[in-house]
Amino acid sequence: MDWDKLVEAAWRARESAYAPYSKFPVGAALLAVDGRIFSGCNVENLSYGLTNCAERVAIGAAVAVGVRQFLAVAVVADTAVPIAPCGACRQVLAEFGVPLVILANRSERVEFLLEELLPRASAGILDRPE
Ligand code: THU
To answer: How far, in Å, CA of 47 to CA of 101, rounded?
Structure first.
């Protein structure tokens, strides 16, 4: 599969990043099952812990218009090696079953199954014996 369009959307979203504290802009783009693309950028806050990562902003943009099924997410940053999504974002991507994670910098692109990045994301949680 050619992920150029999705990665390109993530780079475009990165241009809108609000990252005055880290000065580390990140872009993300989610491909929904219906073919639509939803983008996100990181949105920081003076109270640093309130920062929203690009991936979670993209999920929010999609969910807010009723879209919950996805094929892949692309995440981009201008890093030496393709960026690693944080643990919180891995968990949120798992919530919506995003199967494939494409990570890119200016020169390299790598693909992972979300299951590799966050194994057993929901195993057992809320299961109760009959
Ligand atoms: N960040 C993301 O938006 N996505 C990631 O996958 C990793 C980190 C943001 C959060 C913060 O605004 C900045 O990058 C530095 O951590």
So the answer is: 29
Are the C-beta atoms of residues 59 and 37 closer than 8 Å to each other? no
H or E, element range at 8: helix 4-14
Spell 25-45 as b/e; 16+ CB within 10 A means b.
bbbbbbbbeeeebbbbbbbbe
- Mean pLDDT per 10-residue interval, the chain, length 130 residues: 92 98 98 98 98 98 98 98 97 98 98 97 90
Q: How far apart are CA 59 and CA 84, in angstroms?
A: 17
Q: Which one of 55, 95, 111, 130 is the catalytic residue? A: 55
Protein residue closest via CA to atom 4 of ligand 1: 53
Q: Is the pTM of this model over 0.90?
A: yes
Instruction: Name the nearest CA neighbour of 5 among 63, 72, 54, 70.
Output: 72
